[in-house]
Write a structure and sequence with these properties.
It is a single chain. It contains 3 helices and 8 strands. An 8-stranded antiparallel beta barrel has the order 1-2-3-4-5-6-7-8.
């Protein structure tokens, strides 16, 4: 129930922020690409990973995708993305006698975030905040390394390939006159779904992933063609 409330709140926030600002005389529209590195981990309950610190649990992977941004209001835009995201977790532990566990699980996702893009600053240099819900689907999963002999539940194929959650980021962009828009962003993602079933009869009560992205991006502004005036049209037909 709490997860559903969080998702509804994120959707309402995107809607309110997108339409509560004054309209721009000239809307701004951008398309582009972005990508970078992702730091992944999974919050298991009960905790089945024998690692004792967050570094041993974190899996470093990559992400990238397409960006569409439309700003029709002052200080606020709508941003939609189509991303490829590598998720998963890692296990490094020495709690097994005469052995060490070095294991990693990688899950490849296609994700679609729908976010409010709140920007501030001057026309050329802007800071921005992205916030909103996202959905995703796991298209491939793989694992490598040594499995823990006494903790096997997390090694099964995931039960839920469809994912949903919320995401938010903080960044800065530079607009140039002819070379496009360059930006950097740090973004956090929190999944409201679980990898494995979480009913009362199941082993896990939670198995939801977290990720932190550090990305760079390049966007190109699509400027509308200037409309010909009625006088110029009439002169051209004479």
């Amino acid at each position: 129930m709490k997860r559903t409330v969080l998702l509804i709140f994120a959707l309402l926030l995107v809607s309110v922020l997108s339409w509560a600002q004054p309209r721009l005389r000239q809307p701004e529209m951008y398309v582009g690409v972005h990508g970078g590195v992702t730091f992944n981990m999974v919050m298991f309950t009960p905790d089945v990973i024998g690692a004792t610190n967050i570094i041993d649990r974190t899996l470093l992977s990559g992400n990238g995708g397409l960006v569409f941004r439309y700003a029709g209001h002052k200080c606020c835009a709508v941003q939609v993305e189509l991303n490829y995201m590598q998720r998963g977790w890692r296990e490094n532990t020495e709690d097994v006698p005469d052995a060490s566990i070095h294991y990693q699980r990688r899950l490849d996702y296609i994700e679609v975030p729908f976010m409010a893009h709140i920007f501030f600053g001057k026309k050329m240099v802007r800071g921005f905040v992205n916030l909103g819900p996202q959905i995703g689907y796991c298209i491939h999963e793989s694992q490598s390394g040594t499995m823990h002999p006494a903790k096997q539940e997390q090694y099964a194929a995931i039960d839920n390939k469809f994912d949903w959650g919320i995401t938010g980021g903080l960044g800065m962009l530079l607009r140039t006159r002819k070379a496009g828009v360059f930006q950097i962003e740090a973004r956090f993602g929190y999944s409201l779904g679980d990898y494995f079933h979480s009913n009362k009869t199941d082993y896990f009560s939670t198995s939801n992933p977290l990720n932190l992205n550090a990305n760079i991006g390049y966007l190109w502004e699509i400027k509308p063609r200037p409309r010909k005036s009625v006088q110029s049209i009439s002169q051209s037909t004479m």
